[in-house]
Design goal:
Shape: globular
GO molecular function, one term: DNA binding
Number of strands: 3
Radius of gyration: 21 Å
Low-confidence stretches: none
Strand order of the largest sheet: 1-3-2
CATH architecture of the largest domain: Up-down Bundle
Mean pLDDT: 85
Protein name: GntR family transcriptional regulator
Structural class: mainly alpha
Distance between the termini: 47 Å
Organism: Pseudomonas cichorii
Keywords: DNA-binding, Transcription, Transcription regulation
Length: 247
Amino acid sequence: MAMRKTDREAFLCSVLGNEQPPAHLARAVIEEKVRNAILDGSLPSGTALRQQELATLFGVSRMPVREALRQLEAQSLLRVETHKGAVVAPLITEDAVDAYGLRILLESEALRLSIPLLDADDLATARGYIELLEVETDYSKMGTLNRLFHMSLYAKTPNKRLMRMVEEGLNEEERFLRFNLSSMGLGKLSQDDHWELLRLAEEKAVEQIVSSLQHHLNRGVKAITQYLNSKAEQEKPPVRQRKKSIA
């Protein structure tokens, strides 16, 4: 049953708060609040986000709200549906395996371009993220740290359009990992892979690190495939047993 307007207002206020940001920060504040609420599951898949409701909630015009929603759509966290406007995108879509395959191609190229240009500070940043991942127990934070680690290795990629596409894929993965990393049991495996990636980055071993990254990401393909297969099994309608006729 759809929520009444007052129920929706109360729900959005409880999830997003009603802080009224300064005009010059409105777009960034709204984007961050909505993004965090999507990533932590407070705004579930299918939730409609109407511009006027958000504008009223934050005490701003519709312009910064519109821009914030566009940014979130570009990050694949929202999608626009006919007659509904912006809605929270599904946690994972049926073409996720294909999308992961594309990620492998894009991130391999980003890594290949970036590694020769990384300096000591870049590598120290990457190391810091792994060290945080080693001790972090909150799976939602592990998803964020995983994204930041990978982005730190791609940081010097000169192709900015490529970087935007890579970041979009990592945003999708972060959301998936927040809800599934524990059940997949990939936490320790990922850190072993991350340390190996860092070692190869320090050695500037470009082709070896690209190969290692592809191996690392293929673990994700297997996890996504397993998730989708499990989901399909759960959604199968129960088999009706035919009544035996009495002779």
